[in-house]
Fold this sequence. Notes:
This protein is of the alpha/beta class. Helix content is about 35%, strand content about 20%. Helix 5 (about 105-110) crosses helix 6 (about 130-140).
Amino acid sequence: MNSPLNPISDPSISALERYAPYLSAEDYQALLTVIHEPAPIALRVNLLKSPDPAQALAKWTNWYGWETSPVPFYPAGFQLKRYNTPPSQTIEHRLGYYYLQDAASMLPVALFSPSNTLSLTLDMAASPGGKTTQLVDLNQDHGLVIANDASLNRLPALKVVLQTWGALNTVITNYPGEKWGAWFPGTFDRVLLDAPCSMESLRASPSHPHRPITPDERSRLASRQFALLESAVTATRVGGEIVYST
């Protein structure tokens, strides 16, 4: 029998308690329940290598014994309900024919308007590169995407992802996101800011265990997020688009 969720011993619940006044009791309990469930595995098809994602997926499901369902807001995204061969262990994954990415992470780029122009796009906090490859797909690699990350240690992973994806019109930079607005005001057609966050409401995993966060840490993080967003707004041209996610 499942034991009741204990906010004292479970940091994920303690972190979410402050949201309780804004939700109904039913919705709050649903949130506490779902955060302890494993996230569904999802993948996004590389549109540069497979322009017809449904056709590509049909082959893979046949070869690897997958059962999938579409991500409703992104035609190249699919969730795996069942599989014989894990999607992380196929040759197609190693060659960049698809990227393993949870469905929620596909949403920010899906919010941008499609464009047939040679757009100039800034991904302000790009590593490890999942959303950057999605930005590349948005214009079929015809526009320039600047993939920036302030952390030098995170650039090797970003480089590998973009090379494997087959992205050509992409530049990797290593500058503080807060600087771009001052350096390039009114320049970009699109700016994606996937800002650093406390990760309080993420499902726990070996790479992202839950940990307590102090009010002081939360305040400093909010200040940085605001500075990054201000930079993104300044760097975007009039009529351009900004998507902020965290």
